[in-house]
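Please check this today:
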Amino acid sequence: MKKYCLALDLVDDAAMIAEYEKYHEKIRPEIAESITSAGISGMEIYRIGNRLFMIMETDDDFSFERKAEMDTNNPKVQEWENLMWKYQQALPMAKPGEKWLFMNKIFDLKQQ
């Protein structure tokens, strides 16, 4: 199993943040299917202020490139991503078109 941690900001508007969270109370079944069929076995999103933090657990053969290709070819995922982008904003250090950015692990108690 692999673990990835990613970050993204939301538009800093309380009403929009509430709407975003409402969408995530129970995501659309086709979106859940697209996540699990790509080899993602666990996904959690946390929020503080307008900053999001995602933890993804994946199968060993998971590939972000394969997931991106699957998403590009799935109209329901494209619809979802376009809707979510209304609420999301790139981190200040993101390149044009980047959404979720990988976080670097800087500490692991198990390795002490």
User: Anything to note?
Assistant: The radius of gyration is 15 Å.
